[in-house]
Amino acid sequence: MHKLFWSLLVFLWALSLTGCQAASSTASEVTPSPSPPLATPSMTIEMTIAPTETEEPTLTPTGTKTSSPTPTEIQSMDCGEIFCHLPWRGMLERPISDDFRNITDPNYPYASTRNRTLDPHHGVELINSSGTPVLAAQTGEVVYANADDLTLLGPYTGFYGNVIILRHPDLYQGRDVFTLYGHLSAILVEEGAQVDVGEVIGEVGASGSADGSHLHFEVRLDVNDYAHTTNPVLWFSPVTMPEGGQSSLLAGVILDKSGNPVSQFQISLENLDEVGEVEAYYYPVTYYPAGVNSHPVLQENFTVADLPPGDYRLAFIYDRFYEVYFTLEPGELGFIKLQLD
């Protein structure tokens, strides 16, 4: 009986070990559920990005600057760009001092017909009251000082009234230049006299065909003849602006598809402020094609004198829309050459 009891006890003990091993084996085959990941603390990174500096576009003209050349030193304005500029030092002084109005009348410039109502203008007008002193634009010889009632100096006798003509020998590349002062109220020099630049030679008036008191001023190249005039403003140095500093000068040529200058064509010129708003408008007209002449170097067909320096936009429609942005510098000549397509 004892022996049977112990045998049974051993049998039950062995059976319990087998169950434990089976349970252990079963547990190892079960894939446990993954533990949830540890919470990562949130982190905000503040990054300050410095704005990239963007330069405002500047209307910087192209072309080569030189040091204040005179027209005799300039061989060509063909710089290969639409716009060029260079310092400009004229060969003639203004025939009216800056104590008076020495700005040319923009309403009747050289080569203008004033909307086809007048003959082409062979000079410029400086509007001043009668008696204003008239100055010699350069040193020279008085070759005419009288009324032109019996002498043909222009389109017809009596055209200039009291008139003075000075000869300036070899002034331009060995070529003679003549300056004419018309519609005078008084002549203060005699023929054959030598005068100095800035010398008072007469007084402003309204003689001849003048429709008001002003000085009619011409520049004639090579020959003292009405058909040999050129634009006087291209022979002047820039003036001092009322607010100080020197004025600017604009000239140019607009060519048609065949390369011929476009005549009697109005263009729009706008002076722009710092933010591109229009401060002033100008409406130059290209030259009348007959009887007048371009500057021998510039070969221009429009000119706008005595402009304030700054940014400009030139625009017009000729079959399509054209515009040019550029900057005029104080005391400089800006030149536009535009071939239409």
State the total count of DSSP E strands. Answer: 17
CATH structural architecture of the domain at 71-89 and 238-339: Sandwich
H/E series, N to C?
HEEEEEEEEEEEEEEEEE
Overall pLDDT, averaged?
83
* Gyration radius from CA atoms, angstroms: 43 Å
Strand content: 25-35%
Number of helices: 1
Structural class: mainly beta
Shape: globular
Helicity range: under 10%
Task: Tell me the CATH topology of the domain at 71-89 and 238-339.
Answer: Immunoglobulin-like
- Major sheet, described briefly? 9 strands, antiparallel
Low-confidence stretches: 1-67
Main CATH class of the domain at 71-89 and 238-339: Mainly Beta
Description:
The protein starts with a helix and ends with a strand. Among the domains are: 71-89 and 238-339, Sandwich (Immunoglobulin-like); 124-235, Glucose Permease (Domain IIA). With 341 residues, the chain is mainly β. A hairpin with a 1-residue loop joins strand 15 (310-318) and strand 16. The protein is globular, with a radius of gyration of 43 Å. The strands form three sheets. Strands 2, 3, 4, 5, 6, 7, 8, 9 and 10 form a nine-stranded antiparallel beta sheet that branches. Helix content is 8%, strand content 33%. The chain has one helix spanning 2-29; strands at 83-87, 124-127, 133-135, 140-147, 162-172, 175-187, 194-195, 200-204, 214-221, 229-230, 248-255, 268-272, 278-282, 302-307, 310-318, 320-328, 332-339.
Describe this structure in a few short sentences.
The chain is mostly beta strands. It contains one helix and 17 strands. Strand 15 and strand 16 form a beta hairpin.
